[in-house]
Amino acid sequence: ETVLTQSPGTLSLSPGERATLSCRASQSVSSSYLAWYQQKPGQAPRLLIYGASSRATGIPDRFSGSGSGTNFTLTISRLEPEDFAVYYCQQYGSSPRTFGHGTKVEIK
Amino acid sequence: EVQLVESGGGLVKPGGSLRLSCAASGFTFNSYSMNWVRQAPGKGLEWVSSINSGSNYKYYADSVKGRFTISRDSAENSLFLQMNSLRAEDTAVYYCAREGIAGAGPHYYFDYWGQGTLVTVSS
């Protein structure tokens, strides 16, 4: 199965700063079938990005995704207070579909 | 508005059984594959099982294969997960999640999630 490694484990930033989250795959993710989710405490995950770079419905344009092959990045251009959460990447290029272990973005 | 509402979680002893349900509304249920994804306390997300719109293709994670059974009822717009031979490591919040692409098999991302139902396996 494809193992996804997210880094860093925790990112401490201030509102207004730029956040860069990394997701590396143990093997190439076909067709850039990579998604990103946001999860806040006590809530279900919310889809942010699919196809490595396509924003889901209603997602602000401060969220962007990039990458291909084994290296993918989620960028939040300017952090808003509501963006502090845990972010997961997920690949759907091979079976079984797998998730990374998450990056927590916390307030510095 | 798409809504997914899970129910059926609770405390069960090791070796016991539980049946989870997910009531779907706000979209054409018959057009979408559906999934169960779980999250152990304080841990990450794990895909558990998928079913296509016609119920003729069902998939399971190795960790639950032979113990869990996924099904759906189009008349009731509901998704189910029958969990047998439960183990302590099955303790988690179980989420119902819709496949991201209508008319496709269960091989993509998850665009809508329910709020989850907690399953605790303990003696």
- Unreliably modeled segments of chain B: none
Main interface: chain pair and counts: A-B, 21 and 19 residues
Percent in helix of chain A? under 10%
Q: Class by helix and strand content of chain A? A: mainly beta
Order of helices and strands of chain B: EEEEEEEEEEE
**Number of continuous helical runs of chain A:** 0
CA-based gyration radius of chain B: 13 Å
Quick gist of this model?
The complex is a heterodimer of chains A (108) and B (123). With 108 residues, chain A is mostly beta strands.
Describe the structure.
The complex is a heterodimer of chains A (108) and B (123). Helix content of chain A is 0%, strand content 49%. Chain A is mostly beta strands and 108 residues long. In chain A, strands 2, 4, 5, 6, 9, 10 and 11 form a seven-stranded mixed β-sheet that branches. In chain A, strands 1-3-8-7 form a four-stranded antiparallel β-sheet, with no helix packed on it. In chain A, strand 7 and strand 8 (71-76) form a beta hairpin. Chain A is globular, with a radius of gyration of 13 Å. The model of chain A has no long low-confidence stretch (mean pLDDT 96). With 123 residues, chain B is mainly β. Chain B has no helices and eleven strands. Chain B has strands at 3-7, 10-12, 18-25, 34-39, 45-51, 58-60, 68-73, 78-83, 92-99, 110-113, 117-121. In chain B, the strands form two sheets. In chain B, strands 2, 4, 5, 6, 9, 10 and 11 form a seven-stranded mixed β-sheet that branches. A four-stranded antiparallel β-sheet of chain B has the order 1-3-8-7, with no helix packed on it. The N and C termini of chain B lie far apart (40 Å). The model of chain B has no long low-confidence stretch (mean pLDDT 96).
